[in-house]
Design brief:
The protein is mostly helical and about 180 residues long. It has a single domain, classed as Up-down Bundle (Four Helix Bundle (Hemerythrin (Met), subunit A)). The chain contains eight helices and no strands. The chain has helices spanning about 5-10, 15-30, 35-55, 75-90, 95-120, 125-135, 155-160, 165-180. The protein is globular. About 25% of the residues are buried.
Length: about 180
């Protein structure tokens, strides 16, 4: 019988927890047109970062240090933070703000720690050098200058199934606009 690991349990619940947060935001949101437009603009910037990152990410094959990975070691999580802020803005709910803060502070430090440990195992020396030059989460204004240049790839975007974030965002904003119009 395997030993229970709280960090692994929390890590596995991060997607479900996010889904619960989205449902709560839909139920508790008090949207108006101005906040929806601001929220969509914020959301698009987060989705842009996620798209940019996933079009460079070659999971488990190489340490990705191109695109947004020149500025932060965790651009996908940074994009999630920005998308989450967009949900908080449009919801106009202190409950959603509290849930978002609790969710982000509970799940993301563990996710980032797990990711860091996995990169250390897969790419020990490369990751050691990389982590000295690129911040863990909040981006640097001075990017890493990798020797070789990898270009953005829509093929990688599709392979990494990043389109799911776009579909989820479109569904969320459609429901929020519908709620504003109907209620």
């Amino acid at each position: 019988m395997s030993e229970f690991n709280l960090n692994n349990a929390i890590y596995r619940w991060r997607v479900r927890g996010g889904f619960i947060g989205i449902l709560l935001a839909i139920v508790l949101a008090k949207p108006d047109l101005t906040l929806i437009l601001i929220g969509i603009a914020i959301c698009l910037s987060g989705l842009f970062i996620r798209t940019w990152a996933s079009g460079h990410l070659r999971k488990e094959k190489e340490l990705t240090i191109h695109g947004p990975y020149k500025y932060t070691r965790n651009p996908l999580y940074l994009g999630n933070l920005i998308v989450g802020i967009s949900v908080v803005v449009c919801s106009r709910s202190m409950w959603i703000l509290a849930f978002f803060l609790a969710y982000f502070l509970l799940f993301y430090p563990i996710a980032i720690k797990n990711e860091k440990e996995r990169m250390k195992k897969l790419f020990p020396q490369e990751y050691e050098d990389y982590k000295k030059k690129v911040p863990l989460f909040f981006p640097s204004l001075k990017p890493l200058s990798p020797a070789q240049k990898n270009r953005f790839s829509w093929k990688l975007y599709k392979k990494n199934r990043e389109y799911r974030a776009l579909i989820g965002a479109v569904l969320f904003w459609t429901v929020i606009v519908g709620k504003m119009l109907l209620f």
